[in-house]
Amino acid sequence: MAATVVATHERADAAERILRAAIALFRERGYHGSSMRTLARALRMEAASLYYHFASKQDILFAILDRTLDGLLDGVGRAVAAVDGPPARLRAAVRFHVLFHAHRQHEAFLSGSELRSLTQANLRLVLARRDEYERVFRGLLSVGARAGVFQVGDVRLTAMAILTMCTGVATWFSDRGRLAPESIADRYVEMILRSVTRHPKGSPS
Fold it and tell me: Are residues 205 and 158 in the same domain?
């Protein structure tokens, strides 16, 4: 029993090492510019050993994107559940999304740039989960609009605009840049909340 547990942990650790190396390689060379042999060299292991953990390069890419979506869905759920009221919940969701795309920048970048490299079956699975994530933001906007605190003409379009804006952080963020992730998140939250908040007639926007 103990040996089985150890073997399971060792296999999980090896799979994690492979995924991390693949994220770095795919980010540098692109999915189609990378090979299993190159990945094996980066890990200092035999190419055949990769196939013990993943049947193909496509399986590795899908695992990266699927795990990224796990992190997004779990994280935004926790962020929203921790606060009350439409403004606080939208603020928490936006802040989480920006920080995720700064702290897990490379895999977040791949989740957009390498969608084109998925098989049709894997693409359908990933897009379904992405839509599930987008529905969280549509729901937050809809609840706020019904409560009279948000003014949103097109909920779907606004949710897409918010996510596109925040996801872009993964393309340009640098840990050597002028602003820390937390400061960037604060500014994005301010811009987005200001753009959707309903203001009384005659008050400054």
Answer: yes
- Residue-wise pLDDT tens digits, 60-73: 999 999 999 999 99
Number of structural domains, the chain? 2
In three-state form (DSSP H/G/I as H, E/B as E, the rest C), the secondary structure along 108-120 is HHHHHHCHHHCCH
Range of the domain at 165: 56-205
Provide DSSP, the chain.
Answer: -HHHHHHHHHHHHHHHHHHHHHHHHHHHH-STT--HHHHHHHHTS-HHHHHHH-SSHHHHHHHHHHHHHHHHHHHHHHHHHTS-SHHHHHHHHHHHHHHHHHHTHHHHHHHHHTGGGS-HHHHHHHHHHHHHHHHHHHHHHHHHHHTTSB--S-HHHHHHHHHHHHHTHHHH--TTSSS-HHHHHHHHHHHHHHHHB---TTS--
CA pair distance 85, 142, nearest whole angstrom? 12
Question: What is the domain-level CATH number for residue 24?
Answer: 1.10.10.60
Q: Binning pLDDT at 50, 70 and 90, where does residue 11 land?
A: confident
Q: pLDDT by residue (tens digit) across 96-123?
A: 999 999 999 999 999 999 999 999 999 9
